[in-house]
Amino acid sequence: EDDMENGKNKTKTHQVVIVGGGTAGITVAAQLSRTLRGREDIAIIDPAKDHFYQPAWTLVGGGTYRKKDTRRDMADLIPRGATWIKDAVSSINPQENSVQLASGEIIQYRYLVVAAGIKLNWDKIPGLAETIGTEGVCSNYSFETVDSTWDNIRNFKGGTAIFTHPATPIKCGGAPQKIMYLADETFRKNGVREKTRIIFAIANPDLFQVPVYRQVLEQVVARKGIETMFLHDLKRLNPGSREAVFRQVNAGEAGEETTLKYDMIHVTPPMGPPDFIANSELADQAGWVEVDKFTLQHSRFANVFSLGDCSNLPTSKTGAAIRKQAPVVVKNLRSAIKQQPVAAKYDGYTSCPLVTGYGKLVMAEFDYDKKPQESFPINQAKERYSMWLVKKYGLPFLYWNIMLKGRG
After folding, report:
1. Which of 18, 52, 291, 313 is the most buried (most CB within 10 A)?
2. Could you tell me which residues come within 8 angstroms of residue 63 by beta carbon, excluding any fewer than 6 positions away?
3. Which of 42, 170, 172, 310 is catalytic?
4. pLDDT of 177-192, one tens digit each?
5. Among 352, 355, 364, 395, which one carries the catalytic annotation?
6. Is 310 labeled as catalytic in the residue annotation?
Protein backbone atom coordinates (compact mmCIF):
# COMPACT_ATOMS: atom_id res chain seq x y z
CA GLU A 1 0.00 0.00 0.00
CA ASP A 2 1.25 3.45 -0.84
CA ASP A 3 0.18 6.38 1.32
CA MET A 4 0.48 9.70 -0.43
CA GLU A 5 -0.27 13.00 1.20
CA ASN A 6 -2.69 14.57 -1.24
CA GLY A 7 -3.68 17.90 0.24
CA LYS A 8 -5.91 16.88 3.11
CA ASN A 9 -6.95 13.62 1.42
CA LYS A 10 -4.81 10.63 2.17
CA THR A 11 -4.70 8.41 -0.89
CA LYS A 12 -4.40 4.67 -0.54
CA THR A 13 -3.61 2.37 -3.45
CA HIS A 14 -4.72 -1.23 -3.74
CA GLN A 15 -3.97 -3.55 -6.61
CA VAL A 16 -7.57 -4.80 -6.89
CA VAL A 17 -10.47 -2.73 -5.58
CA ILE A 18 -13.91 -4.37 -5.44
CA VAL A 19 -16.87 -2.02 -5.12
CA GLY A 20 -19.66 -3.85 -3.27
CA GLY A 21 -19.72 -6.57 -0.63
CA GLY A 22 -22.83 -8.36 -1.85
CA THR A 23 -23.02 -11.74 -3.56
CA ALA A 24 -20.79 -10.74 -6.49
CA GLY A 25 -18.20 -8.76 -4.54
CA ILE A 26 -17.61 -11.34 -1.82
CA THR A 27 -17.58 -14.27 -4.28
CA VAL A 28 -14.98 -12.60 -6.50
CA ALA A 29 -12.87 -11.55 -3.51
CA ALA A 30 -12.97 -15.06 -2.06
CA GLN A 31 -12.04 -16.72 -5.35
CA LEU A 32 -9.27 -14.18 -5.97
CA SER A 33 -7.77 -14.59 -2.54
CA ARG A 34 -7.85 -18.39 -2.90
CA THR A 35 -6.18 -18.40 -6.32
CA LEU A 36 -3.68 -15.64 -5.56
CA ARG A 37 -2.89 -16.99 -2.07
CA GLY A 38 -2.42 -13.61 -0.48
CA ARG A 39 0.06 -12.41 -3.09
CA GLU A 40 -2.29 -9.70 -4.28
CA ASP A 41 -3.63 -6.72 -2.41
CA ILE A 42 -7.46 -6.78 -2.50
CA ALA A 43 -9.81 -4.20 -0.99
CA ILE A 44 -13.62 -4.44 -0.72
CA ILE A 45 -15.57 -1.19 -0.35
CA ASP A 46 -18.99 -1.51 1.30
CA PRO A 47 -20.60 0.46 4.15
CA ALA A 48 -23.08 -2.27 5.15
CA LYS A 49 -22.62 -4.19 8.39
CA ASP A 50 -25.10 -6.86 7.28
CA HIS A 51 -25.03 -9.28 4.36
CA PHE A 52 -28.33 -10.85 3.30
CA TYR A 53 -29.25 -14.05 1.48
CA GLN A 54 -32.01 -12.35 -0.48
CA PRO A 55 -33.35 -15.35 -2.45
CA ALA A 56 -34.92 -16.67 0.78
CA TRP A 57 -37.01 -13.52 1.28
CA THR A 58 -39.77 -15.03 -0.89
CA LEU A 59 -39.96 -17.91 1.59
CA VAL A 60 -39.87 -15.50 4.57
CA GLY A 61 -42.75 -13.54 3.00
CA GLY A 62 -44.56 -16.84 2.57
CA GLY A 63 -44.07 -17.77 6.24
CA THR A 64 -41.82 -20.77 5.61
CA TYR A 65 -38.31 -19.46 6.41
CA ARG A 66 -36.92 -17.52 9.38
CA LYS A 67 -35.94 -13.95 8.55
CA LYS A 68 -32.97 -14.01 10.89
CA ASP A 69 -31.46 -16.93 8.97
CA THR A 70 -31.09 -14.67 5.91
CA ARG A 71 -28.70 -12.26 7.67
CA ARG A 72 -25.01 -12.61 8.56
CA ASP A 73 -22.41 -10.13 9.76
CA MET A 74 -20.45 -8.70 6.83
CA ALA A 75 -17.31 -8.86 8.99
CA ASP A 76 -17.51 -12.67 9.04
CA LEU A 77 -17.69 -12.90 5.23
CA ILE A 78 -14.76 -10.69 4.18
CA PRO A 79 -12.13 -13.18 2.94
CA ARG A 80 -8.88 -13.50 4.89
CA GLY A 81 -6.28 -11.19 3.44
CA ALA A 82 -8.76 -8.75 1.92
CA THR A 83 -9.04 -5.21 3.35
CA TRP A 84 -12.59 -4.08 4.15
CA ILE A 85 -13.10 -0.35 3.58
CA LYS A 86 -16.31 0.33 5.48
CA ASP A 87 -17.53 3.33 3.54
CA ALA A 88 -19.80 4.20 0.62
CA VAL A 89 -18.54 5.16 -2.83
CA SER A 90 -19.55 8.65 -3.92
CA SER A 91 -17.88 8.64 -7.36
CA ILE A 92 -15.65 6.61 -9.66
CA ASN A 93 -13.11 8.25 -11.96
CA PRO A 94 -11.80 5.61 -14.38
CA GLN A 95 -9.53 8.13 -16.16
CA GLU A 96 -7.63 8.57 -12.88
CA ASN A 97 -8.05 4.95 -11.70
CA SER A 98 -9.63 6.25 -8.52
CA VAL A 99 -12.70 5.87 -6.34
CA GLN A 100 -13.88 8.64 -4.04
CA LEU A 101 -15.52 7.63 -0.78
CA ALA A 102 -18.33 9.40 1.05
CA SER A 103 -15.76 10.45 3.67
CA GLY A 104 -13.80 12.31 0.96
CA GLU A 105 -10.97 9.78 0.97
CA ILE A 106 -9.62 8.74 -2.45
CA ILE A 107 -8.74 5.10 -3.15
CA GLN A 108 -6.50 4.42 -6.15
CA TYR A 109 -6.72 1.07 -7.93
CA ARG A 110 -4.76 -0.81 -10.55
CA TYR A 111 -7.76 -3.01 -11.31
CA LEU A 112 -11.39 -2.35 -10.45
CA VAL A 113 -14.28 -4.80 -10.07
CA VAL A 114 -17.67 -3.10 -9.91
CA ALA A 115 -20.18 -5.28 -8.10
CA ALA A 116 -22.41 -2.65 -6.55
CA GLY A 117 -25.79 -4.29 -7.04
CA ILE A 118 -29.01 -2.51 -7.92
CA LYS A 119 -30.79 0.44 -6.36
CA LEU A 120 -34.37 0.09 -5.13
CA ASN A 121 -36.26 3.27 -5.99
CA TRP A 122 -39.11 3.19 -3.47
CA ASP A 123 -39.57 6.96 -3.84
CA LYS A 124 -40.34 6.74 -7.59
CA ILE A 125 -43.89 5.66 -6.72
CA PRO A 126 -45.71 8.42 -4.81
CA GLY A 127 -47.41 7.00 -1.72
CA LEU A 128 -45.15 3.93 -1.48
CA ALA A 129 -42.21 4.96 0.71
CA GLU A 130 -44.41 6.28 3.52
CA THR A 131 -46.84 3.31 3.59
CA ILE A 132 -44.61 0.32 2.87
CA GLY A 133 -45.03 -2.21 5.66
CA THR A 134 -48.37 -0.72 6.80
CA GLU A 135 -51.98 -0.41 5.63
CA GLY A 136 -51.96 -3.48 3.43
CA VAL A 137 -48.86 -2.40 1.49
CA CYS A 138 -45.98 -4.88 1.66
CA SER A 139 -42.85 -6.01 -0.18
CA ASN A 140 -40.40 -8.91 -0.01
CA TYR A 141 -37.73 -6.65 -1.48
CA SER A 142 -36.28 -5.46 1.82
CA PHE A 143 -35.27 -7.08 5.10
CA GLU A 144 -37.26 -4.40 6.98
CA THR A 145 -40.53 -5.00 5.12
CA VAL A 146 -40.53 -8.74 4.39
CA ASP A 147 -42.33 -9.64 7.67
CA SER A 148 -45.23 -7.41 6.67
CA THR A 149 -45.82 -9.61 3.62
CA TRP A 150 -46.50 -12.68 5.73
CA ASP A 151 -48.61 -10.65 8.20
CA ASN A 152 -50.77 -9.46 5.30
CA ILE A 153 -51.08 -12.87 3.68
CA ARG A 154 -51.89 -14.85 6.78
CA ASN A 155 -54.36 -12.32 8.19
CA PHE A 156 -56.09 -11.66 4.86
CA LYS A 157 -59.89 -11.87 5.14
CA GLY A 158 -60.81 -11.54 1.46
CA GLY A 159 -61.09 -8.72 -1.05
CA THR A 160 -58.54 -7.70 -3.68
CA ALA A 161 -54.90 -8.75 -3.44
CA ILE A 162 -52.64 -7.14 -6.06
CA PHE A 163 -49.07 -8.17 -6.91
CA THR A 164 -46.95 -5.85 -9.08
CA HIS A 165 -43.94 -6.18 -11.40
CA PRO A 166 -42.41 -2.88 -12.64
CA ALA A 167 -41.18 -1.80 -16.08
CA THR A 168 -37.53 -1.50 -14.97
CA PRO A 169 -35.01 -4.34 -14.78
CA ILE A 170 -35.31 -5.98 -11.35
CA LYS A 171 -33.39 -8.51 -9.32
CA CYS A 172 -34.87 -12.00 -9.54
CA GLY A 173 -37.40 -11.58 -12.34
CA GLY A 174 -39.62 -14.36 -10.99
CA ALA A 175 -39.94 -13.07 -7.43
CA PRO A 176 -42.94 -10.75 -7.94
CA GLN A 177 -45.11 -13.71 -8.96
CA LYS A 178 -43.63 -16.38 -6.64
CA ILE A 179 -45.05 -14.74 -3.52
CA MET A 180 -48.45 -14.50 -5.24
CA TYR A 181 -48.58 -18.28 -5.70
CA LEU A 182 -47.80 -18.80 -1.99
CA ALA A 183 -50.45 -16.22 -1.06
CA ASP A 184 -53.04 -18.02 -3.21
CA GLU A 185 -52.33 -21.28 -1.40
CA THR A 186 -52.50 -19.68 2.05
CA PHE A 187 -55.80 -17.96 1.17
CA ARG A 188 -57.21 -21.37 0.16
CA LYS A 189 -55.99 -22.99 3.35
CA ASN A 190 -57.55 -20.17 5.40
CA GLY A 191 -60.87 -20.46 3.54
CA VAL A 192 -60.85 -16.93 2.09
CA ARG A 193 -59.85 -17.63 -1.52
CA GLU A 194 -63.40 -17.75 -2.95
CA LYS A 195 -64.03 -14.21 -1.74
CA THR A 196 -60.70 -12.93 -3.07
CA ARG A 197 -59.54 -11.45 -6.38
CA ILE A 198 -55.85 -11.97 -7.03
CA ILE A 199 -54.46 -9.66 -9.72
CA PHE A 200 -50.96 -9.78 -11.18
CA ALA A 201 -50.12 -6.41 -12.76
CA ILE A 202 -46.92 -6.80 -14.75
CA ALA A 203 -45.32 -4.22 -17.02
CA ASN A 204 -44.02 -6.95 -19.37
CA PRO A 205 -46.06 -8.49 -22.22
CA ASP A 206 -45.92 -12.00 -20.71
CA LEU A 207 -45.20 -13.92 -17.51
CA PHE A 208 -41.66 -15.05 -18.35
CA GLN A 209 -39.22 -14.60 -21.20
CA VAL A 210 -38.29 -18.26 -21.78
CA PRO A 211 -41.13 -20.03 -23.66
CA VAL A 212 -40.72 -23.49 -22.11
CA TYR A 213 -41.04 -22.09 -18.56
CA ARG A 214 -43.60 -19.44 -19.49
CA GLN A 215 -46.04 -22.15 -20.58
CA VAL A 216 -45.85 -23.81 -17.15
CA LEU A 217 -46.48 -20.47 -15.39
CA GLU A 218 -49.45 -19.74 -17.66
CA GLN A 219 -50.94 -23.07 -16.55
CA VAL A 220 -50.28 -22.21 -12.89
CA VAL A 221 -52.02 -18.83 -13.22
CA ALA A 222 -54.99 -20.44 -15.01
CA ARG A 223 -55.26 -23.25 -12.44
CA LYS A 224 -55.18 -20.79 -9.53
CA GLY A 225 -57.72 -18.41 -11.11
CA ILE A 226 -55.38 -15.42 -11.01
CA GLU A 227 -56.20 -12.38 -13.18
CA THR A 228 -53.32 -10.97 -15.22
CA MET A 229 -52.91 -7.36 -16.32
CA PHE A 230 -50.02 -7.32 -18.79
CA LEU A 231 -48.23 -4.11 -19.83
CA HIS A 232 -49.42 -2.31 -16.67
CA ASP A 233 -46.92 -0.44 -14.50
CA LEU A 234 -47.70 0.82 -10.99
CA LYS A 235 -47.45 4.62 -11.02
CA ARG A 236 -48.74 5.70 -7.60
CA LEU A 237 -50.62 4.65 -4.49
CA ASN A 238 -53.43 6.61 -2.85
CA PRO A 239 -53.07 5.10 0.63
CA GLY A 240 -56.04 6.94 2.17
CA SER A 241 -58.49 5.30 -0.23
CA ARG A 242 -56.36 2.16 -0.74
CA GLU A 243 -56.13 2.70 -4.48
CA ALA A 244 -53.34 1.72 -6.86
CA VAL A 245 -52.97 3.60 -10.14
CA PHE A 246 -51.43 1.76 -13.10
CA ARG A 247 -50.40 3.05 -16.50
CA GLN A 248 -50.34 1.10 -19.76
CA VAL A 249 -46.68 0.94 -20.69
CA ASN A 250 -46.85 0.37 -24.44
CA ALA A 251 -48.21 3.89 -24.94
CA GLY A 252 -45.49 5.68 -22.93
CA GLU A 253 -46.50 8.77 -20.94
CA ALA A 254 -49.76 8.91 -22.89
CA GLY A 255 -50.73 5.45 -21.61
CA GLU A 256 -54.19 5.09 -20.19
CA GLU A 257 -54.44 4.95 -16.39
CA THR A 258 -56.34 2.27 -14.50
CA THR A 259 -57.23 2.66 -10.82
CA LEU A 260 -57.81 -0.44 -8.69
CA LYS A 261 -58.87 -0.65 -5.06
CA TYR A 262 -56.79 -3.05 -2.97
CA ASP A 263 -57.09 -4.73 0.40
CA MET A 264 -53.46 -5.79 0.16
CA ILE A 265 -50.79 -4.98 -2.41
CA HIS A 266 -47.35 -6.56 -2.73
CA VAL A 267 -45.15 -4.02 -4.49
CA THR A 268 -41.94 -4.75 -6.35
CA PRO A 269 -40.32 -1.30 -6.46
CA PRO A 270 -38.82 0.09 -9.65
CA MET A 271 -35.05 -0.42 -9.70
CA GLY A 272 -32.05 1.11 -11.42
CA PRO A 273 -28.28 1.46 -11.30
CA PRO A 274 -26.64 3.09 -8.26
CA ASP A 275 -26.21 6.84 -8.84
CA PHE A 276 -22.42 6.82 -8.58
CA ILE A 277 -22.32 4.36 -11.51
CA ALA A 278 -24.96 6.09 -13.63
CA ASN A 279 -23.07 9.39 -13.18
CA SER A 280 -19.67 7.91 -14.08
CA GLU A 281 -17.86 7.27 -17.35
CA LEU A 282 -18.32 3.55 -16.74
CA ALA A 283 -22.05 3.74 -17.54
CA ASP A 284 -23.87 2.91 -20.74
CA GLN A 285 -26.80 5.10 -21.83
CA ALA A 286 -29.15 3.42 -19.35
CA GLY A 287 -26.70 3.92 -16.47
CA TRP A 288 -25.41 0.34 -16.04
CA VAL A 289 -21.70 -0.59 -16.17
CA GLU A 290 -20.90 -1.22 -19.82
CA VAL A 291 -19.07 -4.52 -20.25
CA ASP A 292 -18.36 -7.09 -22.92
CA LYS A 293 -21.12 -9.64 -22.36
CA PHE A 294 -18.75 -12.60 -22.70
CA THR A 295 -15.52 -11.47 -20.97
CA LEU A 296 -17.15 -9.06 -18.44
CA GLN A 297 -14.33 -6.59 -19.12
CA HIS A 298 -15.34 -2.95 -19.49
CA SER A 299 -15.91 -1.85 -23.10
CA ARG A 300 -13.62 1.18 -22.79
CA PHE A 301 -11.44 0.72 -19.68
CA ALA A 302 -9.40 -2.48 -19.88
CA ASN A 303 -8.54 -2.55 -16.16
CA VAL A 304 -12.21 -2.50 -15.10
CA PHE A 305 -14.52 -5.52 -14.81
CA SER A 306 -18.12 -5.74 -13.66
CA LEU A 307 -20.65 -8.45 -12.85
CA GLY A 308 -23.99 -8.96 -11.18
CA ASP A 309 -26.93 -6.59 -11.00
CA CYS A 310 -25.08 -3.31 -11.71
CA SER A 311 -23.67 -4.54 -15.04
CA ASN A 312 -25.44 -4.22 -18.38
CA LEU A 313 -25.23 -7.97 -19.07
CA PRO A 314 -28.39 -8.92 -20.99
CA THR A 315 -29.44 -11.68 -18.60
CA SER A 316 -31.62 -11.98 -15.49
CA LYS A 317 -30.18 -10.33 -12.39
CA THR A 318 -29.87 -13.33 -10.06
CA GLY A 319 -27.39 -14.81 -7.60
CA ALA A 320 -27.21 -17.91 -9.78
CA ALA A 321 -25.98 -15.80 -12.70
CA ILE A 322 -23.22 -14.43 -10.46
CA ARG A 323 -22.13 -17.98 -9.61
CA LYS A 324 -21.18 -18.41 -13.29
CA GLN A 325 -19.99 -14.82 -13.84
CA ALA A 326 -17.54 -14.69 -10.91
CA PRO A 327 -15.08 -17.35 -12.17
CA VAL A 328 -14.97 -15.58 -15.55
CA VAL A 329 -14.14 -12.25 -13.90
CA VAL A 330 -11.48 -13.89 -11.72
CA LYS A 331 -9.80 -15.73 -14.61
CA ASN A 332 -9.83 -12.68 -16.84
CA LEU A 333 -8.62 -10.39 -14.06
CA ARG A 334 -5.70 -12.73 -13.38
CA SER A 335 -4.88 -12.74 -17.11
CA ALA A 336 -5.02 -8.93 -17.18
CA ILE A 337 -2.69 -8.70 -14.16
CA LYS A 338 -0.22 -10.98 -15.98
CA GLN A 339 -0.70 -8.93 -19.14
CA GLN A 340 -2.17 -11.87 -21.01
CA PRO A 341 -5.29 -11.78 -23.22
CA VAL A 342 -8.64 -12.29 -21.46
CA ALA A 343 -9.97 -15.62 -22.72
CA ALA A 344 -12.63 -16.84 -20.27
CA LYS A 345 -16.21 -16.48 -21.52
CA TYR A 346 -19.63 -16.26 -19.82
CA ASP A 347 -22.56 -17.66 -21.81
CA GLY A 348 -25.36 -15.74 -20.08
CA TYR A 349 -26.35 -18.61 -17.77
CA THR A 350 -28.87 -17.64 -15.13
CA SER A 351 -31.39 -19.45 -13.00
CA CYS A 352 -34.78 -18.48 -11.59
CA PRO A 353 -36.13 -21.01 -9.10
CA LEU A 354 -39.85 -20.35 -9.70
CA VAL A 355 -41.83 -21.19 -6.56
CA THR A 356 -45.39 -22.06 -7.66
CA GLY A 357 -46.71 -23.17 -4.25
CA TYR A 358 -45.54 -24.71 -0.97
CA GLY A 359 -43.44 -27.73 -1.94
CA LYS A 360 -43.67 -26.87 -5.65
CA LEU A 361 -40.99 -25.29 -7.80
CA VAL A 362 -40.01 -24.96 -11.46
CA MET A 363 -36.22 -24.71 -11.74
CA ALA A 364 -35.73 -22.41 -14.73
CA GLU A 365 -32.14 -22.31 -16.01
CA PHE A 366 -31.21 -20.70 -19.31
CA ASP A 367 -28.58 -18.74 -21.26
CA TYR A 368 -28.32 -15.61 -23.44
CA ASP A 369 -30.26 -17.32 -26.22
CA LYS A 370 -33.14 -18.05 -23.80
CA LYS A 371 -32.37 -21.75 -24.27
CA PRO A 372 -32.74 -24.02 -21.24
CA GLN A 373 -29.39 -24.99 -19.69
CA GLU A 374 -30.51 -27.45 -17.08
CA SER A 375 -28.35 -28.91 -14.31
CA PHE A 376 -30.52 -31.86 -13.29
CA PRO A 377 -31.22 -35.05 -15.29
CA ILE A 378 -34.99 -34.44 -15.27
CA ASN A 379 -37.41 -32.22 -17.18
CA GLN A 380 -37.19 -29.02 -15.16
CA ALA A 381 -40.14 -27.38 -16.93
CA LYS A 382 -42.39 -29.09 -14.36
CA GLU A 383 -43.44 -28.22 -10.83
CA ARG A 384 -41.42 -30.45 -8.51
CA TYR A 385 -41.07 -31.07 -4.78
CA SER A 386 -37.41 -32.05 -5.25
CA MET A 387 -36.59 -28.61 -6.68
CA TRP A 388 -38.43 -26.92 -3.76
CA LEU A 389 -36.06 -28.77 -1.41
CA VAL A 390 -33.08 -27.56 -3.47
CA LYS A 391 -34.27 -23.96 -3.08
CA LYS A 392 -35.17 -24.13 0.59
CA TYR A 393 -32.20 -26.15 1.87
CA GLY A 394 -29.63 -26.76 -0.88
CA LEU A 395 -29.11 -23.29 -2.30
CA PRO A 396 -28.70 -21.40 1.02
CA PHE A 397 -26.11 -24.00 2.11
CA LEU A 398 -24.31 -23.68 -1.23
CA TYR A 399 -24.40 -19.88 -0.92
CA TRP A 400 -22.92 -19.47 2.57
CA ASN A 401 -20.52 -22.42 2.56
CA ILE A 402 -19.34 -22.81 -1.04
CA MET A 403 -19.99 -19.69 -3.10
CA LEU A 404 -19.05 -16.94 -0.61
CA LYS A 405 -16.00 -18.97 0.40
CA GLY A 406 -14.77 -18.94 -3.20
CA ARG A 407 -15.04 -22.70 -3.60
CA GLY A 408 -17.27 -22.82 -6.65
Report:
1. 18
2. 150, 153, 154, 182, 186
3. 172
4. 999 999 999 999 999 9
5. 352
6. no
Q: Is 9 helix (H, G, I), strand (E, B) or coil?
A: strand
What are the tens digits of pLDDT across the range 263-309? 999 999 999 999 999 999 999 999 999 999 999 999 999 999 999 99
* 344-375 pLDDT tens trace: 999 999 999 999 999 999 999 999 999 999 99
> What is the mean predicted confidence (pLDDT) over 225-232?
98
**How many Å apart are CA 113 and CA 44, to the nearest integer?**
9
CB atoms near residue 178 (< 10 Å)? 25
* Residues in Cβ contact with 287 at an 8 Å cutoff, skipping those fewer than 6 apart: 272, 273, 277, 278
> What strands lie across the sheet with 227-230, from one edge to the other?
137-138, 264-266, 159-165, 196-202, 227-230
Query: Going by DSSP bridges, is the β-strand pair 9-19/106-114 parallel, antiparallel, or unpaired?
Result: parallel
Cα gap 123→134, rounded to integer Å: 16
172 has catalytic annotation: yes
